[in-house]
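Hi U.,

Before I forget, here's the chain from the pilot set. I'm dumping it here mostly so it's searchable later in email.
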Amino acid sequence: MKTIMKVGLAVLSGLLIAAAWPVNGLAPLAFIAFVPLLYLQDRIGDRENPEKGSIFWLSFLAFLVWNSLTTWWVWKTTAAGTVAMILLNSFFMTCVFWAFHFIKTRLYDNKKGYYVLIIFVLAFEYLHLNWQLNWPWLNLGNVFSHYHSWVQWYEFTGIAGGTIWVLLANILVYKLLKNYNKLHAVYIILVLFIPLIISKIIYSSYEERGEDVEVVVVQPNLDPFSEEFTLTPQEIMLRNLSVASPIMTENTRFVVSPESAIQENIWLERIDKYYSIKELRSFISKYPNTCYVIGISAYGLVPEGHENDFAARKFSNIDRYFYAYNTAALITADTIQLYHKSKLTPGAESMPSWWILRMMKDHALDLGGTVGTLQKDTEARTLSFDNHQVATLICYESVFGEYVTEFVKKGADMLFVITNDGWWGDSPGHKQHLEFSKLRAIETRRSVARSANTGISGFINQRGDIIEQSKYWEQTTLRNTIKTNDKLTFYVRFGDYLNKISVFMTALLVALTIVKLILRKQWKH
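Structure:
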């Protein structure tokens, strides 16, 4: 096979998975996207007639195409950071595929072992959800977010079920093309259509449950590059409250404004002294049955003895330290509840605390606040009002399925997503972010109210249907009634169990391969 053919097949794989990706992608393409890459692996790994070429570099090319075409929009916030992110994520994916290739050729002489790919990808996706360079945006199960009626069974598996579905279909399609037989064709039909049928049955029969709650979501439409961090607190509050006021009713229980809507350099030690907080309390005093949920850029003093905390920042003029937070606040007439964002965006809000990178902790990207790593909350903390508990997911947190279940297990009967998607402009970024919230609704069977600074605000029901949404780049407010739910799905109870099993099996496969290589070396001697 000529080099140009190999390169073409690698690029084809990348193009196919990118063409399947939400929001404008055709999801069924995901079922064949990895077939060219599997063909390359099979030919290069054939010990009897091996093709020349490196599966590492060919797969890197495929993943580079996929990453570039689906996450290029991060460029709108940072060019250098986007290049680093795309290269790193492509490299990580390549390492996973190369490891599959290595195990398949060493443990199975390249004749079997396709299941190893599924196990390794699931283990990698779990790592990508939980380490300090987390970037689960391209976890394969997300590909069906625009086709949410296909994956209602995510309430049992989470998005890991979608990853298995995609990879298993690709493996069966490749095996069918390689060696056609009727049994493989039957397997493909079953693998493709049984999950679809099950999902359609669940979707058509599911009835929303719970109490009706009226929620107002605010989209103030502040330009994050020219307005959000330069307007006065008075102007920002006016932008939020002036659009909310006309649609408030006596039945409104929650008003929700976006992430970082308050930029008043608020210190938590005296939070109730600031203009923005006083103005919000004045507003809700007119509605005694209402609370206000809003995002705050906040600061707090570091307790003595914690000056060496990775997130601690030193004052420039005194020998004291402080933390910076991305905070959600639930405000009533006489109380304030706080939750600090815990799933931080790598580069924008945090740098890894690994010793080799500690010198870079003060070089996180400056997206409007002081530069450095944010301090996180110690737990998934629900905010409560009127016998309801809500999970207030701050921006990036809405991509982490198992983390969202921690709120639900603590009693959250609704999900609020507060975000500032204006950073990415009118690109696929804010649209994909909205789509992923649909998957959280299915996994937890919780309604979602979403407030975006600009982007898309709206409401999602327990089946993952968007029941109302705003347009991009408009100042608006939406009011709707959503249902609460206190039942726990299988996925809420057990989380990313499929990924955790795969981590264990990955360790076992690596150990078996090492043992086999050692024994083979001894036999040769």
